[in-house]
Amino acid sequence: MPSPSRPSPEDTADANAPPRVAYFPDSFHEVNGVAHTSRHFEAFARRRDLPFLSVRAGSRSRALVEEGNQWSLELSRSRFSIPLEKDLRFDPAFARHRARVADALRRFRPDWIHITGPSELGLMGAYFAHRMKLPLAASWHTNVHEYAARRAEWLLRPLPKPLAAAARRGIESLSLAAAARFYRQAKVLFAPNPDLCSLLAHTAGRPCFLMPRGVDAELFHPARRTRPAGDAERILGFVGRLSIEKNIRLLVEIQKSLDPEKEKFLIVGHGGDEAWLRTRLHRAEFTGVLRGEALACAYAKMDLFVFPSHTDTFGNVVLEALASGVPAVVTPDGGPASIVRDGQTGSIARDEEFPSAIRAILDDPARHAAMREAARAYALTASWDAVFEGVYSGYRSCFSAHGERQSSER
Q1: CATH number, domain at 257?
Q2: What would the mean pLDDT of 94-108 be, rounded to a whole number?
Q3: Does residue 302 sit in the same domain as residue 163?
Q4: Among 36, 183, 352, 371, which one is least packed by beta carbons within 10 Å?
Q5: Count of CB atoms within 10 A of residue 21's CB?
Q6: Quick check: is 107 in a domain?
Q7: Treating both helix axes as pointing N-terminal to C-terminal, what angle do 316-323 and 33-48 enclose, rounded to 10 degrees?
């Protein structure tokens, strides 16, 4: 296949014009944080009329769509794709689409290629950035090193505890080193929380900018609560993938501290460990995956959001709960701890402290009411526009640091 060529140097562009971005997300239509962010990124470009090409996987291939400055190319995964989770797959044969992607990039003429991870889309985006001599931006959305260690736990169970712990640390360290090597290809990195940004900048040796998450505060709103004002039932909510890396086993332990007469779980989502959880949570409503208003109404029904994950890089669902006026209890690890204000919009607790943290909030109505108001107030400060304005600032600062804009090569 011929290499896609860059435009000639004579074809110059306005240095003050917004950069033309070709975006290769790991997922777009699925139910996860990457897909959620990606859909909002495309919507932001559409609102601002920014030149933006989205190259993504879908159920079937479609022709290149050009709607003004917003372009999209959707490509199907093959029957050889490997299931990673209930709605996540990796297609080792995705390179068969390379000619179509090359043609789209040649016509769109991007200044940047932006990838979200080492998926088949990310690998293809990195390949074309190299071939076209374009700067590569990479955003980190999933703590793959921690996921790898969690997924390996079942293999390590027969080992003595000290040896298993050392093996977990080794798997995590090797996975992080491999991920850092991949991200080192990028000129600029983005991460959803400050600690992770510092880790990436150190391990990959590249500048890293914050790319947190926003929330639709009109959709996720306390006004969607339909329960009667005097309803004495207390609902603890969880929204997310039902799998081991979300630490959902802690929900079963928390159940032991609940009042079976008036407290129950509301579980929204699906995943590989759903059957396991259903057989062990005896007082719980499982809704499956919800979207849009149905999801917003589910949040608003909750009295407290319980999110025991140690591996989330941000925690979109936590921010959606806060916007719905629902305080959250989260672990001190990962992104959710950067969202929750301990003692104000919820609690930050270690696993063994979750039951007491829950009791301290639910058994104090005045404190609970104050946290509900503070949660909503905080969420109102987190807009998607502010998130993506920061991303474009990162692109521009990288151009400035190198004293040129890529499109000036045209």
Answers
A1: 3.40.50.2000
A2: 97
A3: no
A4: 352
A5: 22
A6: yes
A7: 70
d(CA 312, CA 333): 8
Task: Provide the pLDDT for residue 183.
Answer: 87
Q: Is residue 70 part of a domain?
A: yes
Nearest to 99 by CA among 64, 133, 70, 51: 64
Q: What is the pLDDT of residue 9?
A: 37
Rounded to whole angstroms, how far apart are CA atoms 410 and 408?
Answer: 5
- From start to end of 161-261, where are the E strands? 188-191, 208-210, 234-239
Q: Which of 209-213, 236-240, 270-274 has the highest mean pLDDT?
A: 236-240
209 and 230 in a single domain? The answer is: no
Single-letter amino acid code for the residue at 15: A
Residues 177 and 299 in one domain: no
- Domains in the chain, number: 2
**Residue 67 and residue 49 in contact, taking contact as beta carbons nearer than 8 Å:** no
| pLDDT averaged over every residue in the chain | 87
pLDDT digits (tens, 9 = 90+) for 258-279: 998 899 999 999 998 999 999 9
Q: Rg of the Cα trace of the chain?
A: 22
Domain extent for 254:
222-379
Decide: 281 and 267 in contact? Cβ < 8 Å.
yes
Tokens of 132: 């076209």
CA 178 vs. chain centroid, Å, equals 20
Asked if the structure places residue 84 within a domain, the reply is yes
Please name the residue that has the structure tokens 């470009």: 45
Asked if residue 15 is part of any domain, the answer here is no
pLDDT at res. 267? 98
